[in-house]
Amino acid sequence: MNTELLRENHRVELKRELTPELDLEKEVVAFLNSHEGGFIYIGVDNTGQRVGVADVDGDMLKVKDRIKNNISPSAMGLFDVLEEEGPPGVLCIKVIVASGSEKPYAKKKYGLSEKGCFVRVGSAAEPMPTAMIERLFANRTRNSIGKIKAHRQSLSFEQLRIYFEEKRKPLGRQFKANLELTTEDGALNYAAYLLADENGMSIKVAKYRGKNRVHLMEANEYGYCSLVKATKAVLDKLELENKTASTITAKERIDVRLWNPVALREAVINAIVHNDYSREAPPKFEIFADRIEITSACALPEGLTPAEFFEGYSIPRNKELMRVFKDLEMVEHLGSGLPRITEFYGPECFRFTENFLRITFAASRRVHEEEVTDQVEAPVTDPVTDPVTDPVTDPVTDPVVRLLHALTAGARAPSDIQQMLSLKHRPTFKTNYLRPALERGWIEPTMPDKPNSRLQQYRLTAQGKAVLK
Description:
It contains 15 helices and 18 strands. The protein is of the alpha+beta class. The protein has 3 domains: 12-138, Methyltransferase, Cobalt-precorrin-4 Transmethylase, Domain 2 (2-Layer Sandwich), CATH 3.30.950; 202-362, Heat Shock Protein 90 (2-Layer Sandwich); 399-468, Winged helix-like DNA-binding domain superfamily/Winged helix DNA-binding domain (Arc Repressor Mutant, subunit A), CATH 1.10.10. Strands 10-9-13-14-16-15 form a 6-stranded mixed beta sheet. The longest helix is centred in the N-terminal third of the chain and has 15 residues, at 56-70. It starts with 11 loop residues before the first strand and ends with a helix. Mean pLDDT is 84; it is low at 370-383 and 385-397.
């Protein structure tokens, strides 16, 4: 319990309540751009009295969501949101913001401008002068896989040696430094971890029976090994899936593959080489009855417009991986893959979001011999971020309908539902069962205002009951 009066200063900001009009992002950006960071208290009036907030849990979630999604570069790991008790029964929110290492930080909506960048001056957040923005940006240290220290330092690289020897480029004793696989202090970096014989990264290739993610036919994993080996395995798998159909005319035999092999290979390589592995999110490859989708965790590099992207300008996200893949002749040079893709499928095959890039290639014909019409269409609210997970117990049965049957007796806690469905993997349960059911409106939380409450349960909606009938 804390009852002392608070006062605003260069490290403390007070806010009476969290409203849509409150420019919380400006205050956070100012502290991220400062040398010391600071604290933002919500539920404290301008006299320093703790008056509390009505919905602590809900407002804390909103604060986290706004900071996570509305500030660039990412502030993840640089802030914490806590509940703090003032006088008896009065709960406030304390936001702790650290000084960031990738200054200047900005509000995404306005970018690197005086409307987007702020700095703490006394007890206020003031617009950052343009000259200061340019200076900080020039000196920014990006969180690249070359700067991140690998959490495991006992790594072996026999697979990498074999691939280099096949190209008659044997690795010398100093190959780790020469390939930029070490940090400035000599430790192995995250690029080295990805290229090592053993790691925790796995790339998934999923195959669905229809045009959506309802009926999963296959879920293959390629990984836990050198990223080069995993890439080759993915290419081999997709080469196998890229079947050829032949048409014999009076003059010639015409062979047509499902997807252009040159464009497909370039898309696979680009997705793997340019993926943002600092999020520990690998690229994924999904085959549907009418298309293939390739999704990687990477937005356009900051400062690069879509027009510049399609004109061939390139900012390498993982220069260390690019160097290795180029040495192994798996890529040619920066920007070379894009023209090969757009030549066959045009710029419209690319879809950008703030955090992901998806490439979609329509198939030249039906992918499967027999396309089964899905009994229940599964609308996906955000298909770019919908991950590929482990196969469910019975991929032919809609997993969401199985969940509905589990709720016929009444509301249940998530852990109870998971146990009733005999599911051991919680991410699979949340991704394939719980989240789709919520998105379709077939179930609802019993405590919608407190989504993360330990007492939260889920029950059937009228629409969900109608589906069962």
